[in-house]
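Weekly sync, protein design subgroup
Attendees: M.S., D.O., the rotation student, P.L. (late)

Item 1: inverse folding check
M.S. brought a backbone from last month's batch and wanted to see whether the design step gives back something sensible before we order anything. D.O. pointed out we never logged the input encoding, so this time it goes straight into the notes. Structure tokens as presented (187 positions):
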């Protein structure tokens, strides 16, 4: 293991560059056949001026819709442990002329953003891969404003597992549940 593959002595949740490229290709194919990202992003209550953290942003499939919704007065932090993800987001933001998108490299579960910086954190299609969910959720709690919100989905795990991880963290409580996403408020 190299320094890039560890975070504070533990294996990180970072995928290989090849896996990232395959995931990006798969998302592009899915979005071509079933374009739902814009509508899903629109259901999260993002308004002009909102500060959003797209945690585990991957290739930025939600980052650009979030930036459109947050408008010129908003800001979207695209956070990932994968350098290739941030390069991809940077390219897309430049092409779309979104200066409000700020790529941020996380190191394991440590994100360099300041405390209480986000109105909304979205952790979409990634929570199932988090090896230390309690530590991860505590970091998200640090980032969100006291009146902020976390939108999190199951990804490739059951709803029961997702809910159990959230409850065990002691940092969030579920305020709304839909088949698509859990809306959580900080404890």
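Designed sequence read out in the meeting:
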């Amino acid at each position: 293991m190299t320094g890039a593959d560890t975070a504070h002595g533990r294996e990180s949740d970072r995928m290989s560059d090849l896996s990232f490229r395959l995931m990006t290709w798969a998302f592009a194919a899915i979005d071509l056949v079933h374009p739902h990202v814009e509508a899903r992003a629109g259901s999260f209550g993002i308004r002009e001026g909102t500060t959003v953290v797209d945690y585990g942003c991957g290739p930025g499939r939600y980052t650009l819709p979030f930036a459109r919704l947050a408008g010129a007065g908003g800001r979207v932090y695209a956070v990932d442990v994968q350098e290739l993800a941030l390069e991809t987001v940077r390219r897309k933001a430049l092409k779309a002329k979104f200066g409000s998108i700020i790529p941020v490299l996380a190191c394991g579960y440590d994100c360099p953003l300041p405390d209480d910086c986000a109105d909304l954190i979205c952790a979409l299609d990634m929570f199932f891969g988090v090896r230390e969910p309690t530590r991860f959720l505590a970091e998200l709690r640090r980032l969100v404003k006291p009146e902020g919100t976390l939108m999190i989905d199951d990804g490739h795990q059951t709803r029961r597992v997702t809910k159990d991880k959230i409850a065990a963290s002691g940092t969030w409580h579920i305020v709304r549940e839909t088949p698509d996403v859990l809306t959580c408020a900080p404890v």
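Discussion: The two ends are 36 Å apart (CA to CA). The first strand starts at residue 6 and ends at 7.
Action: P.L. to compare against the previous round before Friday.
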